[in-house]
Amino acid sequence: MAIQERVVYDGPSRRSLVVDPSDGAVKEKRWAERIVILVVRPAESYSRRVRRAALEPFPLDGRMMRPLASAATRTRDFAVAMWRRPFTEPVAGVLALMLLTGFGCASPSAQFTQRAADLGLRAEVVPGTVFQHVVLLRAERPSRTLHIYLDGDGTPWHPWGPASDPTPRNPLVLRLMALDPEPSLYLGRPCYLGFSQTPPCTSALWTTERYSETVVSSMATALSRFLEGTEVDRLVWVGYSGGGTLAMLLAPRFKRTTDLVTIAGNLDIDAWADLHGYARLAGSLNPARLPALPERIHQRHYAGGRDRVVPREVIARGPIDPDAVIVIPTYDHICCWEAIWPTLLVDVDGVSASERRR
């Protein structure tokens, strides 16, 4: 692989006064912060170049920093030290970012798909409107019911700007899906799971427009194509965090929808943004400003009593019956939904079955 440097942040030039310990004189020091990332492209010399770059000394604040015992040890130790001081050389920023992003490790998309494979989920790519969607399927027995899982927003942003790969780092939804005895499908978003750099993807589709009509219509198209030729006549939507937002937007578009379950679902994206002091998601659809779902769709919205990411107040502002909000006092945004998930599934499927017999 060949390695190129790409500057992702160039800070303003700064000035500070320092005392020279040799003569006690006050001197001016100028410096600028810079963060550089490595762009890695296929080439035969990748491993040799990385090892050589890690072992070569480089200047920092006018001093030459020497290698430690090994390339790996030196890289991590220097990265810790340099992240806390001005980056007077681009290589300092490179090493700092290597530490923060786990350089040399698999990408978030690769890690996520590997976790899915470890759980026995089968992956397919299904076309949407103009985007490709990764679909993960778990079907151990034939059924006319399909549970559709929608994941959270993942990592839309880094401190310096939009993420290059927004794929979720936390596989909570995969673990919930693995506990589900019914045939289940994980419906991926546009530009996630390895497609973030594929045209026509842009970072807006996982930042400000993450719940836009463009995203929702493509997901609906992908699911419709997947369902073609199947005998599925009952769809149960399960949305976690931002996936709950999408579940509210997608469920009424399918006549086969009978149930909707959200966990820590962001049902009022404006209230959520205001709560955290974020800019509102211009271009996104807000469930709270849309009509309530049809009465035929049985809803349950679970909130963690300790959730500070999407608290119960945000969930309750959605276009829902207040009685449909169920608070688990000791849970937060992540913990401990796996423990209770099998019980919640029995409750959902049991209620739906009884309603269908009426």
Biggest sheet strand order reads 5-6-10-7-11-12-13-14
Low-confidence stretches: 1-10, 33-104
Q: What's the name of the CATH homologous superfamily of the largest domain? A: Alpha/Beta hydrolase fold, catalytic domain
Main structural class: alpha/beta
Descriptive key words:
single chain; 358 residues; alpha/beta; Rossmann fold; eight-stranded mixed β-sheet; disordered N terminus
Describe the protein:
It is a single chain. With 358 residues, the chain is an alpha/beta fold. The protein has 2 domains: 2-101, no CATH class; 108-356, Rossmann fold. The chain is 31% helix and 26% strand. The protein has 10 helices and 14 strands. The strands form 4 sheets. An 8-stranded mixed β-sheet has the order 5-6-10-7-11-12-13-14. Strands 1-2 form a two-stranded antiparallel ribbon. A hairpin with a 2-residue loop joins β3 and β4 (63-65). α2 crosses α3. The model is unreliable at 1-10 and 33-104 (pLDDT under 50).
In short:
Helices cover 31% and strands 26% of the residues. It contains ten helices and 14 strands. The strands form four sheets. Strands 5-6-10-7-11-12-13-14 form an eight-stranded mixed beta sheet.
